[in-house]
Amino acid sequence: GLEDAKHKSAGAYSKGMKQRLVFARSIINKPKILFLDEPTSGLDPATAQKIKNIIKSKQLEGVTIFLTTHNMQAADELCDIVAFINDGEIVAMDSPRNLKLKYGEKSLRIEYREDGRLKNQLLFLDNLADRQIAAEFLQSGKVETVHSQEATLEQIFIKLTGRGLS
Protein backbone atom coordinates (compact mmCIF):
# COMPACT_ATOMS: atom_id res chain seq x y z
CA GLY A 1 0.00 0.00 0.00
CA LEU A 2 2.97 2.34 -0.38
CA GLU A 3 3.17 2.36 -4.19
CA ASP A 4 1.85 5.92 -4.52
CA ALA A 5 4.51 7.19 -2.09
CA LYS A 6 7.50 5.35 -3.55
CA HIS A 7 9.23 8.61 -4.56
CA LYS A 8 8.68 10.27 -1.17
CA SER A 9 11.25 10.31 1.58
CA ALA A 10 10.27 7.89 4.36
CA GLY A 11 10.57 10.83 6.78
CA ALA A 12 7.61 12.44 5.01
CA TYR A 13 5.41 9.37 5.52
CA SER A 14 2.41 9.43 7.86
CA LYS A 15 2.46 7.27 11.00
CA GLY A 16 0.44 4.56 9.24
CA MET A 17 2.73 4.61 6.20
CA LYS A 18 5.80 4.32 8.44
CA GLN A 19 4.16 1.41 10.24
CA ARG A 20 3.55 -0.39 6.92
CA LEU A 21 7.15 0.29 5.83
CA VAL A 22 8.59 -1.11 9.06
CA PHE A 23 6.40 -4.20 8.75
CA ALA A 24 7.44 -4.75 5.12
CA ARG A 25 11.10 -4.41 6.11
CA SER A 26 10.64 -6.98 8.89
CA ILE A 27 9.42 -9.70 6.51
CA ILE A 28 11.43 -8.93 3.35
CA ASN A 29 14.24 -11.37 4.20
CA LYS A 30 11.86 -14.20 5.07
CA PRO A 31 12.91 -14.57 8.71
CA LYS A 32 12.27 -17.77 10.67
CA ILE A 33 11.69 -15.74 13.85
CA LEU A 34 9.85 -12.44 13.78
CA PHE A 35 9.57 -9.90 16.59
CA LEU A 36 6.66 -7.48 16.14
CA ASP A 37 5.81 -4.60 18.45
CA GLU A 38 2.28 -3.23 18.01
CA PRO A 39 2.18 -4.12 14.28
CA THR A 40 -1.31 -2.68 13.68
CA SER A 41 -0.90 0.52 15.71
CA GLY A 42 -1.88 3.64 13.77
CA LEU A 43 -3.39 1.69 10.88
CA ASP A 44 -6.88 1.98 9.46
CA PRO A 45 -9.03 -1.16 9.96
CA ALA A 46 -8.62 -2.42 6.38
CA THR A 47 -4.82 -2.11 6.43
CA ALA A 48 -4.65 -3.59 9.93
CA GLN A 49 -6.59 -6.61 8.67
CA LYS A 50 -4.16 -7.02 5.75
CA ILE A 51 -1.23 -6.98 8.20
CA LYS A 52 -2.98 -9.54 10.42
CA ASN A 53 -3.59 -11.76 7.40
CA ILE A 54 0.10 -11.61 6.50
CA ILE A 55 1.02 -12.49 10.10
CA LYS A 56 -1.36 -15.48 9.96
CA SER A 57 0.16 -16.65 6.67
CA LYS A 58 3.66 -16.39 8.18
CA GLN A 59 2.48 -18.54 11.10
CA LEU A 60 1.22 -21.16 8.65
CA GLU A 61 4.63 -21.09 6.95
CA GLY A 62 6.19 -22.05 10.30
CA VAL A 63 7.57 -18.64 11.25
CA THR A 64 7.82 -18.15 15.02
CA ILE A 65 6.31 -14.79 15.89
CA PHE A 66 6.72 -12.85 19.12
CA LEU A 67 4.08 -10.15 19.29
CA THR A 68 4.01 -7.42 21.91
CA THR A 69 0.76 -5.50 22.07
CA HIS A 70 -1.73 -3.74 24.26
CA ASN A 71 -4.42 -4.64 21.72
CA MET A 72 -6.04 -7.65 23.32
CA GLN A 73 -8.31 -8.25 20.32
CA ALA A 74 -5.22 -8.60 18.11
CA ALA A 75 -3.60 -10.91 20.67
CA ASP A 76 -6.73 -13.04 20.81
CA GLU A 77 -6.91 -13.24 17.03
CA LEU A 78 -3.22 -13.81 16.27
CA CYS A 79 -1.61 -15.60 19.20
CA ASP A 80 -1.46 -19.30 19.98
CA ILE A 81 -0.05 -18.51 23.43
CA VAL A 82 -0.51 -15.26 25.37
CA ALA A 83 1.61 -14.17 28.32
CA PHE A 84 0.40 -11.36 30.55
CA ILE A 85 3.32 -9.42 31.95
CA ASN A 86 2.89 -7.12 34.95
CA ASP A 87 5.83 -5.27 36.50
CA GLY A 88 8.25 -7.47 34.56
CA GLU A 89 6.71 -10.75 35.77
CA ILE A 90 4.60 -13.21 33.79
CA VAL A 91 1.34 -13.49 35.75
CA ALA A 92 -0.40 -15.90 33.37
CA MET A 93 0.44 -17.73 30.16
CA ASP A 94 -1.76 -20.00 28.07
CA SER A 95 -3.85 -20.02 24.93
CA PRO A 96 -6.38 -17.17 24.70
CA ARG A 97 -9.22 -19.68 24.96
CA ASN A 98 -7.79 -21.37 28.05
CA LEU A 99 -7.14 -18.04 29.76
CA LYS A 100 -10.75 -16.99 29.17
CA LEU A 101 -12.10 -20.33 30.38
CA LYS A 102 -9.89 -20.39 33.47
CA TYR A 103 -10.26 -16.78 34.61
CA GLY A 104 -13.40 -15.52 32.91
CA GLU A 105 -17.08 -15.81 33.57
CA LYS A 106 -19.46 -17.16 30.95
CA SER A 107 -22.61 -15.09 30.68
CA LEU A 108 -25.75 -14.40 28.71
CA ARG A 109 -27.11 -10.96 27.91
CA ILE A 110 -30.84 -11.22 27.40
CA GLU A 111 -32.79 -8.38 25.78
CA TYR A 112 -36.51 -8.38 26.42
CA ARG A 113 -39.56 -6.10 26.32
CA GLU A 114 -41.35 -5.04 29.44
CA ASP A 115 -44.09 -2.40 29.46
CA GLY A 116 -43.15 -1.57 25.86
CA ARG A 117 -39.55 -0.74 26.80
CA LEU A 118 -36.47 -2.67 25.74
CA LYS A 119 -34.49 -3.89 28.75
CA ASN A 120 -31.55 -6.22 29.19
CA GLN A 121 -30.16 -8.44 31.89
CA LEU A 122 -26.74 -9.99 32.30
CA LEU A 123 -26.84 -13.50 33.72
CA PHE A 124 -23.86 -15.66 34.69
CA LEU A 125 -23.92 -19.31 33.65
CA ASP A 126 -21.91 -20.51 36.65
CA ASN A 127 -24.63 -19.19 38.97
CA LEU A 128 -27.58 -21.57 39.52
CA ALA A 129 -30.02 -18.75 40.27
CA ASP A 130 -29.01 -16.91 37.07
CA ARG A 131 -29.47 -20.11 35.03
CA GLN A 132 -32.97 -20.46 36.44
CA ILE A 133 -33.76 -16.82 35.60
CA ALA A 134 -32.48 -17.39 32.04
CA ALA A 135 -34.76 -20.42 31.67
CA GLU A 136 -37.73 -18.37 32.93
CA PHE A 137 -36.95 -15.59 30.46
CA LEU A 138 -36.72 -18.05 27.57
CA GLN A 139 -40.07 -19.60 28.51
CA SER A 140 -41.77 -16.19 28.96
CA GLY A 141 -41.77 -15.26 25.27
CA LYS A 142 -40.54 -11.73 26.11
CA VAL A 143 -37.01 -12.36 24.86
CA GLU A 144 -35.94 -10.45 21.74
CA THR A 145 -32.25 -11.39 21.64
CA VAL A 146 -29.85 -13.61 23.55
CA HIS A 147 -26.09 -13.10 23.35
CA SER A 148 -23.64 -15.50 24.90
CA GLN A 149 -20.56 -13.75 26.15
CA GLU A 150 -17.18 -14.82 27.36
CA ALA A 151 -14.63 -12.72 29.14
CA THR A 152 -12.26 -10.79 26.90
CA LEU A 153 -8.50 -10.99 27.26
CA GLU A 154 -8.58 -7.36 28.39
CA GLN A 155 -10.96 -8.24 31.23
CA ILE A 156 -8.74 -11.17 32.21
CA PHE A 157 -5.63 -8.96 32.16
CA ILE A 158 -7.31 -6.41 34.42
CA LYS A 159 -8.55 -9.15 36.75
CA LEU A 160 -5.08 -10.71 37.07
CA THR A 161 -3.06 -7.52 37.34
CA GLY A 162 -5.49 -5.18 39.04
CA ARG A 163 -4.89 -2.49 36.45
CA GLY A 164 -6.09 -1.51 33.01
CA LEU A 165 -4.20 -1.38 29.74
CA SER A 166 -2.44 1.86 28.85
Helix-strand blueprint:
Layout: H1 15-27, E1 33-37, H2 45-60, E2 64-68, H3 72-78, E3 82-86, E4 89-94, H4 96-103, E5 107-114, E6 117-124, H5 128-140, E7 143-149, H6 153-161
Parallel strand pairs: 1-2
Antiparallel strand pairs: 3-4, 5-6, 5-7
Helix pairs in contact: 4-6
Model description:
The protein contains six helices and seven strands, in the order αβαβαββαββαβα. It is α+β, with helices and mostly antiparallel strands and 166 residues long. α4 crosses α6. The protein starts with 14 loop residues before the first helix and ends in a 5-residue tail after the last helix.
Strand content: 25-35%
Number of helices: 6
Class per helix and strand makeup:
alpha+beta
What's the rounded overall pLDDT mean? 89
Helical residues, percent: 25-40%
User: What does the main sheet amount to?
Assistant: 3 strands, antiparallel
- Spatial gap, N to C terminus: 29 Å
Order of helices and strands: HEHEHEEHEEHEH
Low-confidence blocks of residues = none
Write down the Rg.
21 Å
Question: How do the strands of the widest beta sheet line up side by side?
Answer: 6-5-7
Question: What sort of overall outline do the alpha carbons produce when their principal axes are compared?
Answer: elongated
- The beta-strand count equals 7
Write a compact overview of the structure shown.
With 166 residues, this protein is of the alpha+beta class.
